[in-house]
Amino acid sequence: MRRRIIIIALIAAALIGAALIALNLHGHGRSHGIGVNVGDQVPNDWFALPNGTIVHLDQLRGHYVLLYLVTTWCDACALGVSMLGHDAAAYAARGIYVVILEQYNDLGYQGMPITSFIHSFAGNVPGNFIDGNASLQLTKTFNPTLQLDAYYLLSPNGTVIYKGFNLPNTYGELLPIIAKLK
Amino acid sequence: MGLSDVWNAVKQLASRPRYTVIFASLAAALMAIYYWLFISSAVGFLLLGKYYTAYSITMAVALSVMVSMAISVNLMAYGTLSKGKLGVSSIVIGALPSACCTSLVPALLASLGGFSFAASMTGKIQGALGELAPVLDLAAVVLAVISLHRASTYISRGHCRVGGR
Question: Model pTM?
Answer without folding.
Answer: 0.80
